[in-house]
C-alpha cells in the first residue's frame, strides 16, 4: 500500500500492485473499460460457458482482486460477485474478472483520500437489492461509514436467507 501525505490530506493506493497485476495477467495492453462489470450481465452458478479446467488461476486472480479492495471500494461489490463462483468457475465468470481488470487499466491510479473537512460527524449509509441474485433470489446488502466526510468502512454481503420483503432485505 502506498501512502501520499500532504498537510491537508492523506491518499492511500495500490498503484504499483495494479500495474504488476495487469502485467502478470497480460492485461496491460488490453482495451480499458469504463465500468468494472456490465450491469446487464447476470452470472449464474450452473450456467454460462464451460467450467474452467484451471480453477487455480481463477482463485488466485480473484484473491488478488479481493486484496486490492482494501484501497479500492469501487471494485468491492464486483469482486464479491465473482467470488461467489470459486467452487466451480466458468468461462463467463473469468470474462467478468477480465472486465474488472480492464476497468483497473483505465483507473489504476485510484485509491482512498482522507481530507480534513473541518468536522468529525459520523454518517452511515445502507442499501440492499431485494432478491437481486438471479440464481437463488438472495439479497445483497451493503453499507459505508464516513467520519469527518471520509469513508472509513464499507462492506457488501449476500444475505444468508431469502428475504420475503424489501424491508427484510
TrEMBL record:
Q: Which domain of life is it from?
A: Eukaryota
Protein name per Swiss-Prot or TrEMBL: RVT_2 domain-containing protein
Q: Which InterPro entries match?
A: DNA/RNA_pol_sf (IPR043502)
Amino acid at each position: 500500500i502506498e501512502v501520499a501525505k500532504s498537510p491537508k490530506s492523506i491518499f492511500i493506493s495500490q498503484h504499483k500492485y495494479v500495474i504488476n497485476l495487469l502485467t502478470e495477467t497480460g492485461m496491460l495492453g488490453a482495451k480499458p473499460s469504463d465500468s468494472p462489470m456490465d450491469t446487464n450481465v447476470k452470472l449464474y452458478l450452473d450456467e454460462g460457458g464451460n467450467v474452467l479446467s484451471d480453477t487455480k488461476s481463477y482463485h488466485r486472480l480473484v484473491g488478488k482482486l479481493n486484496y486490492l479492495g482494501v484501497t479500492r471500494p469501487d471494485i468491492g461489490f464486483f469482486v464479491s460477485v465473482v467470488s461467489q463462483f470459486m467452487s466451480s468457475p466458468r468461462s463467463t465468470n473469468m470474462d467478468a474478472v477480465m472486465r474488472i481488470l480492464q476497468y483497473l487499466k483505465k483507473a489504476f491510479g485510484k485509491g482512498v483520500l482522507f481530507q480534513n473537512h473541518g468536522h468529525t460527524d459520523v454518517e452511515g449509509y445502507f442499501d440492499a437489492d431485494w432478491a437481486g441474485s438471479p440464481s437463488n433470489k438472495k439479497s445483497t446488502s451493503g453499507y459505508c461509514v464516513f467520519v469527518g466526510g471520509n469513508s472509513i468502512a464499507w462492506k457488501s454481503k449476500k444475505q444468508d436467507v431469502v428475504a420475503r420483503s424489501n424491508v427484510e432485505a
